[in-house]
Specification:
The chain is about 55% helix and about 0% strand. With about 150 residues, it is an all-alpha fold. It is flat. This is Pre-mRNA splicing factor component Cdc5p/Cef1 C-terminal domain-containing protein.
């Protein structure tokens, strides 16, 4: 009767490790490259360059930009407003400030036309009746006067 052969060492039991397998394959690649360089050096160099070329590694995808936030017509209107404010600033000087101030600040007397800027956000709730501070004071007074279960009794 033949006895089954069991592994005698841990290496035999676990098998070949990944790191060992990769090291063995690397050594084989280096040996193949040396043989290829001895036999045909220019072809081996071309092959190495092809593998290391960044163009072949990853193709770039087309650049996708989001749609514009404002239309061309609105952009032209803004440019016209800026040009008009420059003309007005040239004709009349600002009440205070130097030439540098005039160059940095636009003419604020001209306001944008309706539809150029969004409407103001409405208030969250309508304005309350009376003074908010007075209402809080009344609430605190009621809270102070109310009975608590800590007093005991029915």
């Amino acid at each position: 009767v033949e006895q089954p052969k069991f592994p005698t060492t841990i290496e035999e039991l676990e098998g070949e490790r990944r790191a060992d397998r990769e090291a063995r394959l690397r050594k084989q690649d280096i040996a193949k490259n040396k043989i290829a360089q001895r036999q045909d050096a220019p072809a081996a160099i071309m092959q190495a360059n092809k593998l290391n070329d960044p163009e072949t590694v990853r193709k770039r995808s087309k650049l996708m930009l989001p749609p514009p936030q404002i239309s061309d017509q609105e952009l032209e209107e803004i440019a016209r407003m800026g040009y008009a404010s420059d003309l007005l600033a040239g004709n009349q000087e600002l009440a205070e400030g130097s030439g540098a101030t005039r160059a940095l600040l636009a003419n604020y007397s001209q306001t944008p036309r309706t539809g150029m800027t969004p409407m103001r956000t409405p208030q969250r709730t309508p304005a309350g009746k009376g003074d908010a501070i007075m209402m809080e004071a009344e609430n605190l007074a009621r809270l102070r006067e109310s009975q608590t279960p800590l007093l005991g009794g029915d």
